[in-house]
Amino acid sequence: MGQVREGVRLGAWAVGGIVGLAVLYVIGVFAFGGAGWITAPFRGEADRRENTVGSGEFRQTAYEEFFDLCEAVQNAEGTIQALQEERKTASETRATQIDQSVTALRATRIESVNAYNSKAAQEHRAPFHDKDLPYRLDADVERTTCTN
């Protein structure tokens, strides 16, 4: 009988130790914020937390990025126009340089238009597209208007 009692006592200590460790684990999880991460999928917060759209910094950056890209397109157009005006009275050497610069600026303009259109089409950036800016820019038009 003594050995049975000793076995029961050891079993009780083992079960008590396991329960104690489980309680310590649960306390640790709550103490270090792990419970929020564990229950986040059930509360729908995990997706929101992982989504950078919730960041105020991201929102501001995305909002300003549309203006910057549209302005880059307009700047390239203005420079192209100024160079074309200069070309009318330029020497042959300078005219060649101007032609090269205009070609490079047109490529830069098209890259900016494509970047603008690409970002405008992205679902997570679209909410931060200013209502006064065009939804899409057209690479084929000569003059871009950045406000509607």
Uncertain regions spanning at least 5 consecutive residues: none
Oligomer: single chain
Order of helices and strands: HHHHH
Average predicted local confidence, pLDDT: 81
CA-based gyration radius: 32 Å
The main β sheet shows up as: none
Q: How many H/I helices? A: 5
Give the overall silhouette: rod-shaped
Strand count: 0
Describe the protein.
This protein is an all-alpha fold and about 150 residues long. About 75% of the residues lie in helices and about 0% in strands. Helix 4 packs antiparallel against helix 5. The model has no long low-confidence stretch (mean pLDDT about 80).
Strand and helix layout:
Elements: H1 2-31, H2 34-43, H3 45-50, H4 56-87, H5 92-121
Task: Tag the structure with descriptive keywords.
mainly alpha, rod-shaped, 148 residues
Overview in brief:
The chain has 148 residues and is mostly helical. Helices cover 73% and strands 0% of the residues.
